Amino acid sequence: MEAQRRIDPVNCSVARALAVVGERWSLLIVREALDGARRFGEFKARLGIAGNLLSTRLNTLVAAGVLRRVPYQDPGERHRFEYELTEQGLDLRITLVALLEWGDKYLADPQGPSVIVRHQAAEGDGACEEQVRVVLECSAGHTHVPPQSIHRTPGPGARFLGSS
Amino acid sequence: MEAQRRIDPVNCSVARALAVVGERWSLLIVREALDGARRFGEFKARLGIAGNLLSTRLNTLVAAGVLRRVPYQDPGERHRFEYELTEQGLDLRITLVALLEWGDKYLADPQGPSVIVRHQAAEGDGACEEQVRVVLECSAGHTHVPPQSIHRTPGPGARFLGSS
DNA sequence: GACCTGGGTTGACATTTTCTACTCAGGGCT
DNA sequence: AGCCCTGAGTAGAAAATGTCAACCCAGGTC
After folding, report:
1. Which residues are registered as beta bridge partners of A134?
2. Chain B within 8 Å of A33 (Cβ-Cβ)?
3. Where are the beta strands (DSSP E) in A16-157?
4. What whole-number distance in Å separates Cα of residue A126 and Cα of residue A133?
5. Which of B141, B97, B122 shows the shortest CA–CA distance to A137?
6. pLDDT tens readout for residues B72-99
7. pLDDT, tens digit, for every residue of B18-68?
8. Nearest nucleotide to A52 by CA–C1' distance?
């Protein structure tokens, strides 16, 4: 009775990604890091997060490879560590912009979005200051991908339910 | 002593978006809904989530406008409700694809991604089956937006720190 | 040597999640 | 009518997480 095979929803990169960045504060920490925060106290002050939680989160993100600890020493100060986004962490900007756009569209302040993300191209390109957007597109070049037209297919690492 | 004005990080659409979909399971529920799940039992079976939590999450998502309750009645059954994504919920697909790509890139199964999202264009267009990707681009048409080149600017609804 | 400051750690307490078991409302069967 | 079955939840205790406040620690300043 070979029922219709369904992709195991637990063996999925969305679930794995959420295991890393789905905890409360994690994405907000990454957002602040993208905006230039590097030090413990900076994250703490910007986010108003409790110290031990911030400590735990930073360690988790470092262990996951999203952040990297970098030693530094301010003049006349002892040496300390700060937190820098790895390439893996920088790549989360796409997710964050997607979330920002969604929030702006449906949950914004009545006055409008509070933050606009802009592209700051190199001087050579003519100082672009345009707003950055995230778009869904397919490899064939279709840039309008309506919700009904996307579907999931099993990839090489797929597991199926039912077939143990 | 007009210090450098900084955008209030709490008055931000990312934070607001996360307040709605940042709870554990919320995005996974939306993912299953995008994949066709509609009924309580379906979500429960696919995700292995406890009934009361699922119930709470569904209610939260309905209240937030991500899902909508739709009555239905199977032949020979009493009438029940199923959960359908609203347009607001459908728009989360961008965030989910972004998360999926990130997970595929950094956390995938050694065998490769388990799920590939494809575009299924209308027949008229010639049955596109290409993989769907999410890209960051700016309004000026630059499609390669490296991490260092994005920055946040205050929008119309911005609040600032320090100026009560 | 006493004190200050950034960057944490520790521990008590509160809130959320999770798990298991139970309920509830209809429909069908006998 | 009475009983069982299923989908859709609710109730309550246990486990995990999050918060707050206080403390530590190392170097530099006074």
Report:
1. B136
2. no
3. 67-73, 79-85, 115-119, 132-138, 150-154
4. 19
5. B97
6. 888 777 788 899 999 999 999 999 999 9
7. 988 988 889 999 999 998 899 998 999 888 888 888 999 999 999 999 999
8. C9
Cβ of B128 and A142 within 8 Å? yes
Token code pair at residue A16: 């794995």
Pairs across A and B, CB distance < 8 A: 309
How long is the CA A82 to C1' C8 vector, in angstroms? 12
From chain B, pick out residues whose CB is under 8 angstroms from the CB of A90.
Answer: 147
Question: Left if phi > 0, otherwise alpha if psi is -120 to 50, otherwise beta: which for B96?
Answer: alpha
Nearest to A33 by CA among B152, B36, B58, B114: B152
Taken in order of first residue, the domains within chain A and their CATH numbers are: 1-90 (1.10.10.10)
Those residues whose beta carbons lie under 7 A from strand C are A 39-42, 51-52, 55, 80-82; B 23-25, 48-53, 76-79
Which of A10-14, B108-112, B129-133 has the largest mean confidence?
A: B129-133
Q: What is the pLDDT of residue A23?
A: 87
Residue B159 main-chain phi, psi, to 5 deg: -110, 155
pLDDT per residue as tens digits for the range A107-126: 888 888 888 999 987 655 55
Q: Do A85 and A30 contact (CB within 8 A), yes or no?
A: yes
